[in-house]
Amino acid sequence: MAKPSTPVLKDELDIVIPTIRNLDFLEMWRPFFQPYHLIIVQDGDPSKVIKVPEGFDYELYNRNDINKILGPKASCISFKDSACRCFGYMVSKKKYIYTIDDDCFVAKDPTGKEINALEQHIKNLLSPSSPFFFNTLYDPYREGADFVRGYPFSLREGVPTAVSHGLWLNIPDYDAPTQLVKPLERNTRYVDAVMTIPKGTLFPMCGMNLAFDRELIGPAMYFGLMGDGQPIGRYDDMWAGWCMKVICDHLGLGVKTGLPYIWHSKASNPFVNLKKEYKGIYWQEELIPFFQSVALPKDCTSVQKCYLELSKQVKAKLGKVDDYFNKLADAMVTWIEAWDELNPSAKLPNGSSK
Known about the structure:
With 354 residues, this protein is an alpha/beta fold. The protein contains ten helices and nine strands. Helix 1 (26-33) links the parallel strand 1 (13-19) and strand 2. Helix 7 (236-251) packs across helix 9 and helix 9 (303-318) packs antiparallel against helix 10. Its main location: Golgi. It holds the Pfam family RGP. It is an enzyme of class 5 (isomerase).
């Protein structure tokens, strides 16, 4: 089959990158990323100049821009934490988002071929998911695979895929205690598989190699209040993942995990991480049962409605765990208000009004 001359979804996908440094890492990604539009969210000191290699089509937002665009609602965007990336999701005008960290390089598959992570994410997003019944051959929509004997025919059409969660070779995505006891561990295991995460199953979502359908699930991809002035960090993508999964399950959307891999080049400092994660490690024992038991009412027919309902339940149930969750619940509402202001046409599907 002849390769199409234009890259897939060239005009329908933005690449969002949070950063505090010059983006030299893009040189390595040039053959894969150059055709696409980049949204760079600069964290930390807005007066610092971030250099972007020549030839990339990009827009760069720093804290001053975020404050100017969102005004008082800018309070919902984290500062000094990679959670600031979700501002890029909000200002994007495209149907799909791919987000990657600036310490992620191109990985090689077992044959030594460079992996085009973006292309694989797009394949994942453009093929259906099967959350209601597990296929033992993993993704039945992949070339050379299919549904196994005993798989109900009524479920074989699948559902739209909202999120594609990619993995990492080299430095694994560990929490600080695991980093401390396994400082030299590296992930060398390449598993050539993609699977749909079953309905009712939560997972730890990592934001460093992640793609999603912004039109289907964008408003749920809020990375929370983290970093400066907050008692917690490094749980931004986890929070978004738990909220998103509960909403996908409610709305009948799919989440895939597995391929593609990127090469994660450097481990963050486990002692710094422990400080950021300490409360999260403690709180997650309450958070997981909360998300496992969340029920969204039938009249929550849009992502926004689901998310606002979730924020109410966060306040009611997790507010008792710590006052931080009351602040987070308020920020969730602010996030949706800001999203709807910047994305007026996508406000609510089916012409329904609030």
